[in-house]
Every structure is written in structure tokens, then in C-alpha cells.
């Protein structure tokens, strides 16, 4: 049977991601792995996390990495927009990890981010769908087809999505909103279990809806 493994918010916790990948052991040619975004900022090793994800994409036939709101904040920062918002939301930790040290100020330019990482981040999709579900970082707007969803809903949705009982046709698998344990309802599965806040890094295995955490 073909499985899909969806991984919640990593936030620079590279070591936890390594342990989780070693535990779930997807089949490289058959299974699909989806990382639901927010793999940078706040945690200690955003650089190592990005490099690990890029290596996994080279190893696995179906390894997808989605954009989260923290990746969008970095892209906005690089474009000269809302730079303080990125820094205030864990962006300084990302910069520090790329520069190999600690600090409390941003460099004058953006040469700290390798061009190949910038291009990779800019190309990340905001959603993915297969036979097991619809995968997004934050949520979906009820009643709107996946092809018409706005980036704001995909990356920033919160309470209106969490409170809806709308049938999206398939379960919506999302991160963004941290829960103590995986949030499973009839129409959605939330798997951000607060890795960077002292919680666990979680993965849901579909179609069984099995939760695996480290």
C-alpha cells in the first residue's frame, strides 16, 4: 500500500527531524512525504534543516516541502518588505544559523543566504493534494475550491478554519496552529505539536491516520 507521511512544523529543530525520519522510514520509490512548512525560524538550526530537506528531496521520489508563513516572511524580508516582522518572529535565529554564530542584529545585506537556497524557497508550493488528503500549512477557506484559495488562507488561516465543519472532500492536513497532541476531526488533521516550544515533532501516516512523534 502507498502511504503519505505529513510532518508538522519543524522550526529549525533539525535533530528532531533526523530522528523522526529515521523512525518513520518511508519507502523511497513508493511513499510520499509532505513537510507542511515553517521549517525555519525560532529553533537552533534552520540552515541544517534546509540542507537536510534538500538532501531528502534528492533521495526520495516523492518528497514535497510546502511553504509556511515563516518562509513567506523570509521571502518578504529578502524583498525588502516587513523586515522587522521577520526578525521579531524568530528570523534572527535563522540568520544566526546561516552565519554560524549568535547575534541580535541583521547584516547590512542578504549575502548570508546562498542563492540556491533563496531560489529553492521561492519555488516552494503552498498546497498539495493526493488521494489521501489536501495538504496546506495553515488551512483552507470553506466553500472555495483549492485552486482558488488565497495565499493568505493557505499560510495564515486560524480560527475560522479551525471552527468550520465544512466538508472539503478530503481531510485537510495542516500545521501552523500548535496543539499539545495531534488535532483530529472529521474534516481536518492538525499536526503542529510545538516542537520548538518544548513539545514534540509529529507526523501523520495516511490513510491510517497514525500519529508518530519524537
Automatic annotation (TrEMBL):
Domain Serine/threonine specific protein phosphatases: 66-71
GO biological process, one term: RNA decapping
InterPro entries for this protein: Ap4A_hydrolase, Calcineurin-like_PHP, Metallo-depent_PP-like, Ser/Thr-sp_prot-phosphatase
GO molecular function, one term: phosphatase activity
GO cellular component, one term: cytoplasm
Domain of life: Bacteria
Pfam families the UniProt entry points to: Metallophos
PANTHER family in alphabetical order: METALLOPHOSPHOESTERASE, ZINC-DEPENDENT ENDOPOLYPHOSPHATASE
Organism: Desulfurivibrio alkaliphilus (strain DSM 19089 / UNIQEM U267 / AHT2)
Record's protein name: Metallophosphoesterase
Amino acid at each position: 500500500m502507498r502511504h503519505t507521511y505529513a510532518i508538522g512544523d519543524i522550526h529549525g529543530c533539525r535533530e528532531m527531524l533526523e530522528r523522526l525520519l529515521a523512525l518513520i522510514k518511508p519507502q523511497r520509490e513508493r511513499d510520499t512525504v509532505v513537510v507542511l512548512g515553517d521549517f525555519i525560524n525560532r529553533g537552533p538550526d534552520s540552515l541544517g534543516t534546509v540542507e537536510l530537506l534538500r538532501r531528502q528531496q534528492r533521495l526520495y521520489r516523492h518528497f514535497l516541502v510546502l511553504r509556511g508563513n515563516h518562509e513567506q516572511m523570509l521571502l518578504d524580508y529578502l524583498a525588502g518588505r516587513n523586515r522587522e516582522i521577520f526578525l521579531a518572529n524568530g528570523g534572527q535565529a535563522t540568520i544566526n544559523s546561516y552565519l554560524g554564530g549568535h547575534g541580535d542584529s541583521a547584516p547590512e545585506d542578504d549575502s548570508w543566504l546562498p542563492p540556491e537556497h533563496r531560489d529553492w524557497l521561492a519555488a516552494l508550493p503552498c498546497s498539495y493534494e493526493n488521494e489521501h488528503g489536501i495538504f496546506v500549512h495553515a488551512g483552507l477557506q470553506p466553500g472555495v475550491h483549492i485552486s482558488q484559495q488565497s495565499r493568505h488562507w493557505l499560510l495564515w488561516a486560524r480560527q475560522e478554519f479551525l471552527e468550520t465543519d465544512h466538508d472539503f472532500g478530503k481531510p485537510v492536513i495542516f500545521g501552523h496552529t500548535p496543539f499539545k497532541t495531534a488535532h483530529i476531526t472529521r474534516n481536518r488533521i492538525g499536526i503542529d505539536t510545538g516542537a520548538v516550544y518544548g513539545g514534540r515533532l509529529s507526523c501523520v501516516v495516511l490513510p491510517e491516520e497514525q500519529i508518530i512523534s519524537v
